[in-house]
Backbone:
C-alpha cells in the first residue's frame, strides 16, 4: 500500500499541483494532516478513489467538482456540475452591493443564484435584509437550498423561474443584482479551463454574450422601487456595451467597476424616481 509521502512525492515529480488537495479530500483530512502523518498508508479503496480523482483532474475536470466544495466570500459552499463554480471576481458584485449602504429591512432580489453564493454572502453580511434568490434550474436550487441550510441563512428565500418570472409582478425592490451568463455561445474559451464541465446554460448567452444581460437590464425598471439599483456582472470586454444598455433603459449614475485584475467586471446604475 502506498504511503502519503510516496504519493506526494509522485505528484511533485509529475507536477500535479492539486494532488495534495485531492488526497486530503479522500482521507477526509486537511492538507496539513498530510505532512504531519507522511507514513500513513492508504487502504486499497482510498488509493483507488484517489487515483480515479487524479485521472479526472488530469483530464481537465475542475477541482471544485471533484471535491464538491468551493470557497466564496470566506464561506465554503457545496457545488456540483448543476451549478457554475463561484469565481473570486464575483465577490466584487457582493462588495458593490454592500457599498450602496442600503438601510435595514431591505428586500432585495438576486437573479440566477446557482449555488446561492451571492445571496449567502450578502445574507451573512446583512442578516437584516430579506433576499429572494431565483434560478430556472431546480437542480441548482437544490444545491442552493443545501448551502443556505448549512450556513443558517434564514433571511433567504428561493424561487424558481426564468429571471423576473420567478417573482410576483407587483413586488418591487430597491436592489436587484445578477451574475448571468455572458459568454458568447461560440467563444472558444468554452472549450478550455474546465468550462466544458460546467452547465452550458449558466455560461453561454447568444452570439455576443449579451442576450441575458439585455433581458435583465431592459426589464429591471418595472421591478425596481424609485431610485432603485441594478448591479450585474459581465465579461471583461463588455463594459461599454452594458453601460449602453443601462442608459437605453433609463438608468442614471451608470458606472463600471473593475475587478482585482483590472478588468471591467460589474456595472451598476440607479433608476430615477418617477416624476
Residues:
Amino acid at each position: 500500500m502506498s504511503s502519503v509521502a510516496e504519493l506526494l512525492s509522485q505528484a511533485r515529480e509529475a507536477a500535479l499541483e492539486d494532488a495534495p488537495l485531492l488526497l486530503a479530500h479522500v482521507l477526509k483530512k486537511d492538507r496539513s494532516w498530510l505532512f504531519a502523518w507522511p507514513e500513513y498508508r492508504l487502504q486499497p479503496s482510498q488509493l483507488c478513489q484517489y487515483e480515479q480523482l487524479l485521472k479526472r483532474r488530469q483530464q481537465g475536470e475542475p477541482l471544485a467538482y471533484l471535491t464538491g466544495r468551493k470557497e466564496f466570500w470566506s464561506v465554503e459552499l457545496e457545488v456540483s456540475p448543476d451549478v457554475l463554480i463561484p469565481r473570486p471576481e464575483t465577490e466584487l458584485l457582493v462588495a458593490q452591493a454592500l457599498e450602496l449602504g442600503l438601510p435595514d429591512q431591505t428586500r432585495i432580489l438576486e437573479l440566477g443564484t446557482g449555488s446561492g453564493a451571492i445571496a449567502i454572502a450578502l445574507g451573512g453580511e446583512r442578516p437584516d435584509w430579506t433576499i429572494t434568490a431565483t434560478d430556472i434550474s431546480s437542480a441548482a436550487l437544490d444545491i442552493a437550498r443545501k448551502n443556505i441550510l448549512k450556513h443558517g441563512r434564514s433571511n433567504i428565500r428561493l424561487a424558481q423561474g426564468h429571471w423576473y418570472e420567478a417573482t410576483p409582478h407587483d413586488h418591487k425592490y430597491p436592489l436587484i443584482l445578477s451574475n448571468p451568463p455572458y459568454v458568447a455561445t461560440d467563444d472558444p474559451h468554452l472549450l478550455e479551463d474546465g468550462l466544458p464541465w460546467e452547465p452550458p446554460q449558466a455560461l453561454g448567452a447568444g452570439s455576443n454574450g449579451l442576450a441575458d444581460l439585455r433581458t435583465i437590464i431592459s426589464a429591471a425598471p418595472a421591478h425596481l422601487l424609485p431610485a432603485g439599483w441594478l448591479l450585474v456582472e459581465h465579461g471583461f470586454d463588455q463594459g461599454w456595451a452594458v453601460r449602453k444598455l443601462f442608459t437605453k433603459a433609463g438608468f442614471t449614475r451608470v458606472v463600471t467597476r473593475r475587478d482585482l485584475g483590472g478588468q471591467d467586471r460589474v456595472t451598476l446604475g440607479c433608476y430615477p424616481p418617477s416624476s
Notes: Strands lie at 69-72, 75-78, 107-111, 130-135, 156-160, 173-178, 224-233, 252-258, 264-270. The chain has a mean pLDDT of 91.
